Amino acid sequence: MKNQLCPCQSQSIYDECCGFLHQGKQVATNAEQLMRSRYSAFVMHNTSYLQTTIHPSQRQPDDLLNLQQTMETTQWLGLIILEHTETGDQAEVDFIAFYVDKPIGQLHERSRFSRQQGQWFYLDGEFLPPIKLGRNENCVCGSGKKLKRCHG
Ligand SMILES: [Zn+2]
Ligand SMILES: [Zn+2]
Fold it and tell me: How far is the CA of 101 from the centre of ligand 1 (A)?
């Protein structure tokens, strides 16, 4: 991933974005950053990062299996953060992660996060309906092409 753009579509280099968090050089300073780094971990099939960023109270014995299944069956295309609200040690992030499907797939979720001893963790999420995408808008994958000429 040297000098490659980060999968979270921040337009930063991976090593200077989610890479810092994946390598344990930094902890996320807010829930949105954690959300982005979890998305990148999905793209890069980093199951251990995804497991360790689930809140300890929410970890399940089948987490690893579920993560592996999602990674095998889903090809992620891009991420947009719609809203990020933080109140003390609780936060919510409303986001859409796009994936390859016909028409294009959307995981639209409002995730909840909690901070414990200075570290943010993913708690759980609520699924929301997909948003309407214009076929003449730029594709969510960041190619610069119109959706209808790319992954639409
Ligand atoms: Zn990133
Ligand atoms: Zn595309």
Answer: 23
Task: Answer whether the bond into residue 103 is a cis peptide, omega within 30°.
Answer: yes
State the helix-helix crossing angle for 63-73 and 31-43, rounded to 10 degrees.
60
Q: 34 CA to middle of ligand 1, Å?
A: 9
Q: Which domains does the chain have, with CATH numbers?
A: 14-149 (3.10.450.50)
pLDDT tens for each residue of 54-100: 999 999 999 999 999 999 999 999 999 999 999 999 999 999 999 99
Give me the residues paired with residue 114 across strands.
90, 121
Q: Which residues surround ligand 1, an ion (CB under 5 A)?
A: 6, 8, 10, 17-18, 36
At 32, list the tokens. Answer: 């949105």
CA–CA separation, 27 vs 68, rounded Å?
A: 24
